[in-house]
Amino acid sequence: MKLYTYFRSSAAFRVRIALNLKGLGYEPQFVHLARGEHRQPGYGALNPQALVPALVDDGDLLTQSLAIIEYLEEKHPSPALLPKDLLGRARVRSLSLLVACEIHPLNNLRALQYLVNDLGHSEQDKNKWYHHWIHDGMAKLEADLVLRPGTGRFCHGDTPTLADCCLVPQVFNAQRFNCDLSHAPTALRVFDECMKLDAFQSAQPSRQPDAE
Question: In which domain, by residue range, is 18 found?
């Protein structure tokens, strides 16, 4: 398998975690987002979405982090990243989508670059925007972890799931922007549990060969 990745990409980080949890080896292919390498014709010919991550498995291209992880889950079901029960799977997917669809898109690199480069906002405005949406999204995640049944050592239960693959990169990004996450103690507790595992540690940005 080849994984097209960028060390700071939250979405690629999710897939790196999932691959590690499942013990699947892969060959990293580095696409530097800040330099615009994802917009080059060569990468666009491979991946029409021009985003990372992209996974090539047996010659087949897969895109979008959650779709990739669900593919890996179906092809390599053990260890499982989704619970066996119907309601548990729905909750894990809900938590994952909260991060991947509600929090992350408002704060990813291209959105922040557009705020500054195209709309003329200052760095202070950009950081205010980032902190606002992180605070809002993490408050929602915290409420779900506290108020709905199923939370254990990890986001759901006592083994890592897809939800943890999404949570950890988002916390990393929030910390990089010096966001106050004290209103999300349960999420931080789960984050700390995840980071006790090598699968998460070895996937983090600073451990990637393309880290700067």
Answer: 2-79
Per-residue model confidence as pLDDT tens digits over 171-207: 999 999 999 999 999 999 999 999 999 999 999 999 9
Tell me the CA end-to-end span of the chain in Å, nearest whole number: 24
Residues contacting 151, CB < 8 A, separation 6+: 145, 186, 190
Contacts for 95 with CB less than 8 Å, ≥ 6 apart:
141, 144, 145, 155, 156, 163, 166, 167
Cα–Cα distance list, 58 to 2, 18, 45, 65, 137 (Å): 9, 18, 18, 18, 37
- Using 50, 70 and 90 to split pLDDT, how confident is the model at 108? confident
pTM: 0.95
Element (H, E) at 60: strand 60-63
**Antiparallel, parallel or unpaired: β 2-5 and 27-30:** parallel
CA distance 201 to 16: 10
Map tokens 């408050």 to a residue: 139
C-alpha of 155 from chain center: 14
Last residue of a domain, one of 53, 79, 105: 79
Same domain, 38 and 109: no
Based on the domain organization, do 74 and 90 belong to the same domain? Answer: no
pLDDT averaged over every residue in the chain: 96
| Distance in angstroms (rounded) separating the CA atoms of residues 212 and 67 | 28
